[in-house]
Specification:
It catalyses: aldehydo-D-ribose 5-phosphate + D-glyceraldehyde 3-phosphate + L-glutamine = pyridoxal 5'-phosphate + L-glutamate + phosphate + 3 H2O + H(+). Keywords: Lyase, Pyridoxal phosphate, Schiff base. Pfam families: SOR_SNZ (PF01680). The structure is a single chain. By secondary structure, the chain is of the alpha/beta class. It has a single domain, classed as TIM Barrel (Alpha-Beta Barrel), CATH 3.20.20. Helix content is 45%, strand content 11%. It is built from 14 helices and eight strands. Helix 3 links the parallel strand 1 and strand 2. The longest helix has 27 residues.
């Protein structure tokens, strides 16, 4: 008897049922898919914990802006915990105006080769491709920085997509926790870079501390409202409530020009200090760099602070707060 075929006509009303039946024949292991997702989330979480620990290693140190290998070697010899590779330091960026972007990767690599301490570099706010480039050249830390011209006025880089730890600026608790929620491993005050005026950094650190104390004094059931107000996950607010600090290290930056400035920020609660224009715009960068490192180490000893503040040469001229035309700290909220 010959073979025969059965042909069924599927009318439009039956099409959805037909696809549903066909999908039932497609092999799908839900357990494997779920386990894969859980493993990926665990890997991301573990990587973030590692990045936070890498940032913790810089705690109690000074991070200095440098423009070339020679300056990087001066910073390393002075005892810097890390250097920030920049083609133009903040004072020059502010003076020149225009659009400021990520530094030339070739210059960054020359600095990487010149020193054995970690090297950081800046990307524009929201410019994830600049971050991809820095990760490709194996930078140690990426600073998503308001010092450079923002590339995106709404969104920051999704820092959880990267292996390398990120540093971000914040002028209050809300900004700090939002950046941490995005994956930042270190927070620094924004201050006003390139001015040599410490007032903004002091304001931001005091604001952060004041808001942390407020969160600590809330009832448990009030934390959800606080999280909504700060626009952050409630888990981060609960951490601040229980521990009285940020989940990551918090450094001071913006306007540090003298050993006294550095010690002031440490006494206000900073866990380390970034110094930009204050060193290499001063009269004696070598002595000032070493003095600022010693000030951070001995910030509670006025006798040592007095000794290391002597004969440092002229400090950078600086810009008074009332003379500032562009407030970099207002970028990237």
């Amino acid at each position: 008897m010959g073979a025969f075929f059965v042909i069924e006509i599927i009318v439009p009303g039956q099409i959805d049922l037909f696809y549903l039946v066909m999908q039932s024949f497609i092999p799908y292991n839900k357990t494997v898919a779920t386990n894969t997702t859980i493993e990926e989330e665990k890997m991301t979480e573990n990587r973030y914990e590692l990045n936070k620990n890498l940032a913790q290693m810089l705690k109690g140190g000074v991070i200095m802006d440098v423009q070339n290998p020679e300056q990087a070697r001066i910073a390393e010899a002075a005892g810097a915990a890390a250097v920030m590779a920049l083609e133009r330091i903040p004072a020059d960026i502010r003076a020149a105006g225009g659009v400021s972007r990520m530094s030339d990767p070739k210059m960054i690599k020359e600095i990487q080769e010149a020193v054995s301490i970690p090297v950081m570099a800046k990307v524009r706010i929201g410019h994830f491709v600049e971050a991809q480039i820095l990760e490709a050249i194996e930078i140690d830390y990426i600073d998503e920085s308001e010092v450079l011209s923002p590339a995106d006025d709404r969104f920051h880089v999704d820092k959880k997509e990267f292996q390398v730890p990120f540093v971000c600026g914040a002028k209050d608790l809300g900004e700090a926790l939002r950046r941490i929620a995005e994956g930042a491993s270190m927070i620094r005050t924004k201050g006003e870079p390139g001015t040599g005026d410490i007032v903004q950094a002091v304001r931001h650190m005091r604001m952060m501390n004041q808001e942390i104390r407020r969160i600590q004094n809330l009832r448990e059931d009030e934390l959800y409202v606080a999280a909504k107000e700060l626009q952050v996950p409630v888990e981060l607010v609960q951490y601040v409530h229980e521990n009285g600090k940020l989940p990551v290290v918090n450094f001071a930056a913006g306007g540090v020009a003298t050993p006294a400035d550095a010690a002031l920020m440490m006494q206000l609660g900073a866990e380390g200090v970034f110094v930009g224009s204050g060193i290499f715009k001063s009269g004696d960068p070598v002595k000032r760099a070493a003095a600022i490192v010693k000030a951070v180490t001995n910030y509670q000893n006025p006798q040592i602070l007095a000794q290391i503040s002597e004969d440092l040469g002229e400090a950078m001229v600086g810009i008074n707060e009332n003379e500032i035309q562009i407030l970099m700290a207002e970028r990237g909220k």
